[in-house]
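Q: Convert this sequence to C-alpha cells.
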Amino acid sequence: MTSATLDPRQATLQRLLCELVVSLLVVGAVGVPVTAASTTVRVVAAPDDPGVTATHTATAVVGSKSASDSLNGFTVDYSVSSSPADVSNVGQNDVVRVGIDTDGDGTIDTDVSDDLGEASVSNNGHTIKFGFGGSYSLAENDTVVVEYNDTVNPDSAGTFDVNVTINPQSAGTPSTAGLEITSSSTPTPTPTPDDPDSGGESEPEPTQPNVEVVTLPEAASASATHQLRLHVGSANASEPIEGVVVDYERADPRPVSFSNVSVGVDTDRDGDVDAALDDRVESVEVNSDGTIHVGFDGAYTPDRDDVLQFVFEGVVNPPAGDHEVSVVATLGSTNLTVTGNFSTTESISGTDDAIRQGFLVASPPAAEADATHTAYAVADTGVSVTQVTVGYPAAIDIGKLDRSNLTTFGINRNGDGAVDSNLIAAVESIETDANAVTVTLADRQRLRAGEMFVVGFEPVRNPSLGTYATAIRFDDRPTERATLVVGEPTTEVFEFESNNESRKLVRASPAGSANVSLDSVGSSDVELQQLSIAFGNASSSVVVGSGGDMPAPAGVRGQELGELTLQHSEGNVAGVTVEFTVAKSRLAEVQYGPRNVSLYYRQDGDWRRKETGLVGETATAYQYRVEAATLSSYSVWAGPSRPNRRPDIQIREVALNRSDIDPGTPVRVSVAARNVGNASGQQTITASINGVVVEQSTVSLAAGGSTTVAFAHTFDRPGRYDLAIGDASVSVRVRQGRTGTPSTRPTTPGFRVPVALVAAAIVLLLEQSTTGEDTEDNS
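A:
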C-alpha cells in the first residue's frame, strides 16, 4: 500500500483537527473536576460555621441490599476527612429525633426513638454509632433519619467527607456524603438539588411541631405544676408568636393566675430555659371550659430549634389515666395546632408520702470504721425535689460535711441502683445541722414513681455494732425510715419496687453470700426461683430484679423459651447460681427434651452459653441450676446438642471509600467480619499493603455475631497498590501529579471524561479518513 497524498485542504483540516485534539487533552489534564454522582446519604450541620457546636442531621436511603432487614445500626464516620467533626460529647440523650421517612418528603413517618439502645463514640471522637433493637424493618427507598446535638464542626470552611452506613454490623456498605461548612464571614447561598454547581446539597431537614407535657405530681386530683414544651417546627419559625391556647381535655386549670404562669425559651434543646419570656407575655386568661389563653406582644420570633416552655402552677389533675392536651399557637397569620399527652396515677389513700422506700448503706460496714454512706430514696409518686435530707440518730456523729465530702448525688431511673443522671454539678450547697445532712439543688428536679435519689458522702465514722434507725426526707415532706446496719458478717435484703417491677437490694459483708428468692419473676414458660450470689473480698451492694429487653442471641439453633434480666449496680459479685424452671408444656410444644435446655448470659456485650443441670421436676415443670460469672441478662433456649463447638470468623466484605486518589489523601477501608461458627472466639485481622503489614485489629465475636473493622492509610507516592485484608484484597491507584489534601466534593462541572472520549473519537475518524483515502489511491 502506497502512502496517500493529501491535497492542501485535507492537510489543513488534519492539522486543525490535531490541534483541537491536543487542546482538548490539555484542558482535560489541568484537573477540572468532574461533577460527582448523586449520593444516597446526606449530613447537614446547623449552624454550619467552622468550629462551633452544632446539630447534625444524617440521612441515608435504603438500597436493595438492606431492604427487608431490621434496623439494627446506623454509623456516621467523620474520620475519613482530613479535618473531621468531633462527636466526643454526643450521647443517647443528645438524639433529637430518629426515624424512617417512608415517602421521601423529608419528614419522619415512623418514629423509632423507642428502639434506640445506644449512641457510642469511637475513632478518637470522630465516629458515632447508633444501635437499635431491631424492632423496625426497612424497605427499599426508605430514608433513615438521625438528628443529634453536641457535634463540633470542623475548624475550617470547606466540604468534608463523611461515611454513613446502615446496619454496619451486618456488613452494610458505607456511602460518602459531603458535609458543607461555610465561613461565617462569607455567607454561602443555600444549594439546591437542581443546581449542578452546588454539590447537590439541599436545605437541612425540616423539623416538625410537637408538644411535651409533664405534670408534677402525677397523682389524680392533686394540685400540680404542669410544664408544656412547645416546638413550633422549622416551617413556622420565621413568624412572631402572638398567642397560645392550651385546651385541657379533663384537667381543671381555673386556679391558675397571671402570677403563677412563667414562660421561657430553650434554645439548645437541653431541657433548661436559656432566656425568660415573661416580659413578652401581655395577658393570661383562664376559662371554665378548661382553656388557658396566653397573649404575647408579638416581639418574639422563635428560631428553628427554639422550644417554648410554659409552666402553669395550680392545675388540678384529672382522674387517673391517659389524657390529651391540645395547643393552638398563633404565629403571624398561621394557627398551628399540636397535641400532647400526659398521665395521672391513682392516689394512695391515707398518705401523702413522697418516699416509698429508703435505705442507707455503709461501705465498709465494719464498726468504728471510716466509711462512705450512700442513701437511696425511692419516690412513691411523681415528685419535684429541691432538697434531700438524711438524718442520723444521736449515737452517730457525722461531723461537719461540705461539697468536698459529696461522693455521689443523682437520680437512678431504672432501678439498678446506679446513677443515671449525675447532679453533683447542680448542687447549690450541702449542710450538716442537728446530725442531719441536707443537700440543696440549684433547680428543682423531677422524679417519677419508682425512680430514686442516690446520695453518697464521706467520711462518716461508723458507730459500734448494731442496727440504727435513720431517716430520709424530700424537702419538707414526711420522712421515711431507713435502716443502717453496722457489723460483720451480715447479709440483708431490702425489697422495693421500680417501674412496676419487683426488685431487691442485697447487701453483704466481705466474702459473704446471699440467697434471694424472687417469686414469679419471668413468664409462665420460664420462671426464676432462686439466686445465690457470692461476693468477693470487699463489702458490696447489688440490686437484682426482673425487667428489660435484650436482643436474642444470634446464630443459635433451636427455640428461645424465655428471658430473665437481672440488673445490678457495679458491685463485688464473684459468682451467681441461678435456679429456674421450664414448663413441660412449652418443651413439648417446641419438641425438645428436658436435657436440651441451655442458658445464655450476656457479658461484655456478647452472649455466652452455659451448660445447665437438670436437678428435678414437678408435675408441670423441669427444674434447672446453672452457675454464671455475674448477674446479667439471661436467655433460656431449647435446641439440639452442640458436640463440636468452635468459632469460625470470616471476612465477608471489603469496601473502600475511594480507590483512585491523589497523593496525601487518606483511604479508609472497612471490612465486615462475622462468626459463622457455633462458639465465641477471637481473630486478629491484618491489613497489609504490597505484602507489608501496616495495621492489625483483634475482634471478639460471639457465635453468629458480626462487626465492622475500619483501617485508614495515607499514600504519599503515586502508583498502584494492593491492599489485603486477610484473604481478600482490593487495588488502590494513586494518581501522578497533585499532592496535599484534594477537595473531596467538586462543585463545578469538568470535562475530563468527555474530553478523553471526544479526543479518541476524533483520532479514530482521522485514521478512518486516511485509511479510506489510501484504499482509494490503490484501487
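The chain has three helices and 51 strands.
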